[in-house]
Structure formats: C-alpha cells, structure tokens
Specification:
three-stranded mixed sheet, 7 strands, two-stranded antiparallel sheet, mainly alpha
Length: 266
C-alpha cells in the first residue's frame, strides 16, 4: 500500500511540474506575441514629449537634465544607472534623478509624486513612469555597466546587499526569500534568482515594463515598493535611499546583461 501511495505521489508531483512548465511556456509565447505591439510604446512616446516640453515654474524642458552623460543626453544613460551625482551629492537611480531634475531644473513641487502618486495611472504622478520609459528605451539592447569606482556607489551597493538579505515584517521575509534560489514560484509565476546573471537580467534589465494584468507601465521603483508591500513591510518612500541602494545592488548584479525595455510582463 505504501508503494502505491508513493507512486501516486510521484505521479502527482510529476504532473504538477509538467503543468507548471507548460503554463510558463504558454506565458512566454503570449508575451512574445504581445511584444511586437507592446502598449508601452505609447507610454514611451508620451515620455519623449514630456521630456521635450517646457514645464514647471521655470518653464523649461528636461533636455537640460544631466543623467550622467551630459545635459540632455539620454542615449545609453539608463545603462549606467544608478550612479553618483556630484551636484546632488548622492547616488541616484533613474527616477530619483528625474525627480531631482524636475525640482531643480523645472521648479516643480514634487510632493504629488510621493509616495504612491508616481504609481497612478493618470495625473501628474504618471508622468514619471512615461519619462522613465522613454529614457530607458534609449538603452534598449545595450548592457548594464554600472560604474562602481566612486566610494558612494560602492557603499550604496553594500547597503543594498544588506537590505536584500535582511529579514523582517510579520512574515519574516527578505528579498532573498523569493529571489536567492532556483525554482521558486508564486502560484504559476516563476521567480528569478537575482544572484545569477540570467535572473538579474530578468529581474532588473526588463523594466520599465507593461503589466498586462494591470494595464499600465510599471517601473523599478514600483517593483521595489510592491515587493515590500507583498512582504508586509511598511511602505518604502518613492525614490528613497533605501530603494536606490537596492537598485544599485541589483543593477551591479546585472552588469553585463542586456537591457530589454520597455518589456511586457504578466
């Protein structure tokens, strides 16, 4: 009898693994079909227009914003972020830098972008996702090459690593709980092992991305906020040093991986 139950259990596990594998294959096919007509392209176009439009109390465009390669240069800028910015005196990822430029260059009051304002589907906060999508798309096909020569960048990466492994919240979860091993999943959704190059490529180099389930483009800042929310941690503030440190660590893990943005996800 014990042998029969063991055989049935083995068969059930095998069928489940096959079902999960088949589901992932079908999801991959679905994503590939949509990629040719990715709705994020509309968001990208909107972002380009916002980048070039004079706005804010100073009535200037973001074309004077230095993303690390000189004022207004967007080609390849995303591939080298996060990075240290001397004028701000800190390490910034793309969205943190965009908010800084909106404040200092255009004269915006960016409070509407904090905390979840930047994640809205409409209104002033949604502009950030559009601009970030436009900028990131100018590095599409390039490889991440985060410069770690500055001490502040190295410290941000170290802090991000500590945060990645730090457990907390009511579930005693950390980023590593879901993203430090192979073969983990939530329901039918496979979870990338971010400690491996291919996992880092999936987890970092494919954002911003159009989320089919939400009908909106999401950015890495949103991804970090959402992960903390799912772990039932307190909300992390938009463009906070905590998020930037995590993104610096993950981008460094993803160094050398190809950027595919804007991407499309479930």
């Amino acid at each position: 009898m014990r042998l029969i139950w063991s055989a049935l259990l083995a068969a059930s596990v095998s069928q489940l693994a096959f079902a999960q594998s088949s589901a992932e294959d079908e999801i991959a096919k679905y994503r590939a079909m949509l990629q040719d007509g990715n709705p994020a392209e509309l968001t990208q176009m909107q972002g380009e227009e916002l980048w070039k439009t004079r706005r804010g109390t100073k009535n200037v465009s973001l074309e004077g914003c230095d993303l690390g390669k000189g004022p207004g240069v967007v080609q390849g800028a995303y591939a080298e972020l996060p990075r240290y910015f001397a004028d701000a005196g800190k390490v910034m990822d793309l969205e943190a830098r965009l908010v800084w430029c909106m404040e200092h260059l255009q004269g915006w009051d960016t409070k509407p972008y904090f905390n979840k304002g930047a994640f809205n589907s409409s209104g002033p906060g949604s502009d950030i996702a559009a601009i970030a999508t436009y900028v990131a798309a100018q590095s599409n096909g390039m490889k991440f090459k985060v410069d770690t020569s500055h001490p502040a960048t190295r410290q941000a990466i170290k802090t991000g690593e500590e945060l990645f492994w730090r457990r907390g919240g009511p579930f005693d979860f950390s980023c590593a709980t879901c993203h430090a091993d192979d073969g983990k999943r939530i329901r039918l959704q496979g979870l990338p092992n971010l400690l491996k190059a291919e996992g880092a490529a999936t987890g970092v180099a494919t954002w911003p991305a159009y989320r089919v389930s939400q009908g909106i483009v999401r950015t890495l800042q949103h991804r970090m906020w959402d992960c903390y929310w799912q772990m039932r941690h307190p909300d992390v503030e938009y463009t906070s040093d905590v998020v930037t440190a995590l993104l610096a660590y993950l981008a460094n893990l993803g160094n050398g991986t190809e950027i595919k943005s804007p991407y499309i996800k479930r």
